[in-house]
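Input/output pair, single chain:
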Amino acid sequence: MKKLAFGVLSLALAGSLLAGCGKTETASGGQNQASSGGNGQAAAAPSLAGKKIALVTQLNIGTFSAQYIDGVKEQTEKLGGKLTVFNSENDLAKMSSNLDAAVNQKFDGILIDHGTAEALEAGVKKALDKKIPVVAFDATLTVPGVTSLEQGDQKMAELTLDQLAKDAGGKGNIVKIWVAGFAPMERRQIAYKAFQDKNKDMKEIAAFGAATNNTALDTQAQMEAILKKYPNKGDITAVWAAWDEFAKGATRAIQQAGRTEIKVYGIDMSDEDLQMIQDPKSPWVASAAVDPKDIGRIQVRYLYQKLHGDQTPDTVVLDPVFVSRDSLPKDKQVSTDQLAQYVKGWGGSQQGYTDWLKQMETAKK
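Output:
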């Protein structure tokens, strides 16, 4: 996810920047009439300056979500836009209301982070009827005209599960932390089912998971209960966490219980996650992810392509990478901004970039 990934994912952006650099606004109060879109010609790119962009999120929990929003903010500002974030606090009814507000306040473009078709479809169709383009990330939307981004969730799950099986020698007892109802989670579950079918000696002895406003803390409490149920070394071989908020909670529970023979394999990556993985005393040893800032940047690029009148694909799949402790330096802590030095394919994605977008960025400097 905001993710959750998930994800997935709880900060609302506020504040303003000097004119010409764009600004970020919180989703409170009305908006003025938005400026008109581009006319579809490359020479019209400067007319896209000052666009008002809405980001409607299902939930903003953890550092992954914060870095994703940073990516959205950064790319919007590079293009001279003004961003407003609507945080729905994991309330789908509120998310639907926030989407309606973004449409009624006449934003020039709308970005969606997670959510379901039931909550969003009517609002999205209303936006498109009013000629407001929409680009979604990890939402279960199939509305014609909407470009949807996803992380290659099955691939991320495969990368982590294959490493788990390899490290365990193909046998052992595992705990799965996963939750239904989110598009990326459902895709990750497909890979997990295939993993179970292929690895008959890897036994699932417990499964749990819930997306809450305190997901990591709640997961920690649930994992503590699992550890008490299976108190002996060897009872649990590994934990597979389908979201980094799950991985953080499980890792803390295992560390506090002194059960670091249990290894944790996660999905998604943030600076906080990376710090935990680099810790040699941490049970969290690997994760698969797409740079959350890149997700935000790419989503904005496709929205501006739509504003420019360009044709955009229905679906954009982002390529994940596998990050293990073994691939990271042991003598210093690194951030996700530095991760590309150690993990090939991390960050700096050129997906969604066009020549005119790059020229527009240059013109704003």
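The first strand starts at residue 4 and ends at 7. The domain at 153-290 is CATH 3.40.50.2300 (Rossmann fold).
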